[in-house]
Amino acid sequence: MLHEDNHTIVVYKPSGIPLQPDQTHDLSLYDIVKNYLKHTYQKQGDAFVGIVQRLDRPVSGVVLFAKTSKGASRLCEQIRLRHISKQYQAIVLGHPSPPSATLHHTLLSTDSHTKVAAQGKPASLHYTTMATNQTQSLLHIELHTGRKHQIRCQLAAIGHPIVGDLRYGAPQPCADRSIALCAWQLMFTHPTTKQPINVTLPPELQLHLP
C-alpha cells in the first residue's frame, strides 16, 4: 500500500501478477485490492474497485485504483486527457546514443504484439540515461502518449530492448520471467479535493543496475 483515501488507493504491483483477472485464473492485483477493502472495512457485499490504468503482467510498479464510481469516472477522464503523469524506469541492453532523446514512432498493435509500421498511431516518449555498466543502461522514461507496449516496442526499435523482454528482442529471459521495466512514480489530481497526489516507489522497489 502506497496511498489510500476515501476515493483512491495506490498499490505496488510486483512483476508476474496480472493487474486484472484473465484466462490464467491466477490471483490478480484487482482481486487482492478488492479482498483488502472488503475485509478492512467489513463490507457486506463486494467492494467497489475501479481500474483506471493498465500495467503489463511482467512489469512492476505503481498502480492506481478508484474506490468509488465517482472517483473512477473522474480519474478515467484524467487518463483520457493525459493529465495523469507516469514515470518509468527501464534497464536496457547496450548504451543508447544519444544518452537522452525523444523517440517518435508510428505503432500498430495486435492482441499480443506492437510493431513500428507505416500505418498506425503516433507514439512518443522521452528517455534519459541515469546509469550504465559494461552491457546495460538504466533509463528514466516519460511517456507522451499511452500506446500498448509502447516503451517496450520503441526501445527495441532503436536497438535497445528491455532486459528479459523476449517478445521485443531480448536474447534471454530474467530468472523470474519478469522484464526490467518499472512504473516508479505516479502523479494525479485527487478526484474530489483537486489536490495533487504524487506517489513514488521507495528505493528498494525501484530498478537498479546489477
Notes on the structure:
The chain has 210 residues and is of the alpha+beta class. It is built from 3 helices and 11 strands, in the order ββαββαβββββαββ. Strands 1, 2, 3, 4, 5, 6, 7, 8, 9, 10 and 11 form an 11-stranded mixed β-sheet that branches. A hairpin with a 6-residue loop joins strand 10 and strand 11. It is globular, with a radius of gyration of 18 Å. The two termini are 27 Å apart. 32% of the residues are buried. The model has no long low-confidence stretch (mean pLDDT 95).
Strand portion, in percent? Answer: 25-35%
Q: Major β-sheet, in short? A: 11 strands, mixed
Work out the radius of gyration: 18 Å
Strand pairing plus helix content: what structural class?
alpha+beta
Mean pLDDT, rounded to whole units?
95
Could you tell me how far the N terminus lies from the C terminus, measured between alpha carbons in angstroms?
Answer: 27 Å
**Total number of β-strand segments?**
11
- What level of helicity do the residues show? 10-25%
Instruction: Give the SSE order as H and E letters.
Output: EEHEEHEEEEEHEE
Q: Give the low-pLDDT segments.
A: none
Number of helices: 3
Shape field: globular
